[in-house]
Amino acid sequence: MPFYEYRCDACGHGFEALQKISDEPLKHCPACEAPQLRKLVSAAGFRLKGQGWYETDFKSGSKKNLAEGSPDSGSSASAASCGTGCACH
């Protein structure tokens, strides 16, 4: 279940609430009881980092298991294939 951020327009109280996607948005502020809560849009609270499913899933051939030292894991070889000299691969 995701966390949603809320802020009260009446008192300015801000908080996060753990809710199902299908739940109705909250309406009453827990601090002042005013029915003036607004659901805020915020960035995701997680980051994919390190070795994991995203590193190897949906890849084929020599692109699998890049973190285990395959020939394509070096930044100089990848940058050469890009053609711009960047380290984007």
UniProtKB/TrEMBL annotation:
Residues 1-42 form the Putative regulatory protein FmdB zinc ribbon domain. It comes from the Bacteria. InterPro entries: Regulatory_FmdB_Zinc_ribbon. Residues 73-89 have a biased composition (Low complexity). Signal peptide: none annotated. Residues 57-89 are annotated as: Disordered. Pfam families: Zn_ribbon_8. This is Regulatory-like protein. It comes from Methylophaga lonarensis MPL.
